[in-house]
Design brief:
alpha+beta, seven-stranded mixed beta sheet, four-stranded mixed beta sheet, 10 helices, globular, PurM-like_N (chains A, B), PurM-like_N_sf (chains A, B), magnesium ion binding (chains A, B), ThiL-like (chains A, B), metal-binding (chains A, B)
Chain lengths: 343, 343
């Protein structure tokens, strides 16, 4: 360990908590008491319901520290949880972090991770109010739990979609998957020859999609401004196909997704071409785009059709019609979930 | 793997979630939507504040599956978090579980773990409303986050103690530590000679204290019934000495803890004698008793002095008087934190 770094066992758990706590501020009016007691104290807003979600990121399964900087990992851990809050049509308010780190981690490494989480807390206006930091025999594990608020009865469940509802998605898809392909190729090149410099300059967009995804809270705000309430919503973490199937299963509907409308960014198309991959397949089965997939009543078509960052992919149908991708030639092809199987 | 057990990768994440979800029921009126969407939906009770806490249990650090049955582990993971809620003078309402399991775990093993969590949810009247289950490269990691409620302004912080307040503790101390000593001795005997049968019959109480601690929600209820509001409170997870120091540091006070009043159960005394350990030291520095340490105004002395399960250990003092254990001979000895240092 270089001399300027501090092993975790040199300062102990309580001193570490004090150091991590130092940079935190509470922004939410409902955050009565943050880190430092047996539990945080929260004052919920009258008339609001809450949403609560937890997500675990495990080293070697969800991230590879050989190409994921700790600061980005901290940011991503918060973003992917906030994405679940956004997918309920809610806004995040407080979060807690449970962290276990192996013996090779230093105080400075944990501070980098927290710096990324603090950045994300600022970006999403959410307060880090509690945590647990402990040792592990292995790598890094990070469990973030976020609480959010939404006006009573306004939460968007997966189950609210109706046949004829328009099926919409924010942003573009497949980029995070292509970013992972690029990063893994560069890692292999580096392992083969440690003198190699990684060539990432041409892949900035897709690498950023993989390493630093953003939760689409902006879409939640904009739909409210447009007066559109999503009838159902889910975030795209496991690939479009898997999420359409989840949404249809919960809503008891089928769907028609037009392949020509699946939004793909140019850098994603270019990277897919280079890797000889079908970009539609990357969008359908690649994961971690963290866009929002949602349905709106067909009567809201006018309100959203010109939104620059929302694409209408197709529409829900009766369940009996199945859940199909419609090819450019007009052929229906049943969608299959090939999302992450982490086991 | 025996034929009647199912490897996790044979069923996949979504099927596993469905199986785990099957046995869950929602009891709390505020639990609007449980597992199965991007997030749970919770309706907070008007006029209440919430408390929120998270705790991580890591295999090889916090538990040893060679002597901790998975069902007990599941129960304990919930209990230790509920203990933090109790330490705020609150009652638990909802919880979420983030779980990562290595390749050697089976579906049946994860179901056992969940069975233990379900038992604890029943015992503490709390709803399991969400989770994340994923693979790991190593062992088992379990992060539980619990939400609780308390009437606005009635939460007990660590910082509310005043000089002259009586310092009280529930139950008895040092038992969980002695249980761990017994279990580790039997494990060593087993490793030396796998034919050995573990000899636990004489140690039932202390082993139970280690493997299946209970959160003292009963004390929270009873103090309310007695009309006693703790001025400060903390749960005893790292040993009495460490917790007294935390409470005094947060309250800006000193304390006098009379060693003759430290509550020790007979089985703890017997086990300590057998292991040649000072039982007071076990209470001060052993961890995981999960009793409640709290202060009450001296005017409440009459209300609690006859409670069979609350012991008055001493009282808070001015900060300048220090934080001392008073020996039977009347000598003050400064308390030192020797709690868990997990790094």
């Amino acid at each position: 360990m270089p001399e300027n770094l501090t092993p975790l066992n040199a300062i102990g758990e309580f001193a570490l908590i004090n150091r991590l706590q130092a940079g935190l501020t509470l922004r939410q009016p409902g955050s009565v008491l943050g880190i430092g007691d047996d539990a945080a104290i929260i004052r919920p807003t009258a008339g609001m319901e809450q949403v609560m979600t937890t997500d675990l990121l495990v080293e070697g399964i969800h991230f590879d520290l050989s190409f994921c900087p700790l600061r980005h990992l901290g940011y991503k851990a918060v973003a992917v949880n906030v994405s679940d809050i956004a997918a309920m049509n809610a806004l995040p308010t407080q979060l807690v972090v449970a962290l276990s780190v192996g013996p090779r981690f230093t105080v400075e490494a944990v501070e980098e991770l927290y710096a990324g989480m603090r950045l994300a807390c600022e970006a999403y206006n959410v307060d880090l109010v509690g945590g647990d930091t402990t040792a592990s025999r292995g790598g890094l594990t990070l469990a973030v739990t976020v609480l959010g608020e939404v006006a009573a009865g306004q939460a968007a469940r997966r189950s609210g979609g109706k046949p004829t509802d328009l099926l919409c998605v924010s942003g573009d898809l497949g980029g995070a998957f292509m970013g992972l392909q690029v990063l893994e190729r560069e890692k292999q090149a580096f392992l083969a020859d440690p003198e190699t410099q990684p060539e990432l300059a041409n892949y900035e967009y897709v690498v950023q999609r993989q390493l630093r995804p953003e939760a689409r809270l902006d879409i939640v705000h904009e739909l409210r401004e447009l007066g559109v309430r999503p009838t159902s919503m889910i975030d795209v973490s496991d690939g479009l196909a898997s999420e359409v199937l989840h949404l249809c299963a919960a809503s008891g509907t089928g769907a028609r997704v037009f392949s020509e409308f699946v939004p793909l960014a140019n850098p994603t198309l270019e990277a897919a071409a280079e890797f000889n991959l079908d970009p539609i397949t990357c969008a359908l089965n690649g994961g971690e785009d963290y866009e929002l997939l949602f349905t709106v009543p067909v009567t809201d078509h006018e309100k959203i059709k010109n939104h620059p960052d929302i694409t209408i992919l197709g529409h829900l149908t009766d369940k009996a019609d199945g859940t199909n991708l419609i090819t450019k030639a007009g052929q229906p092809v049943p969608l299959k979930a090939q999302g992450w199987t982490s086991f």
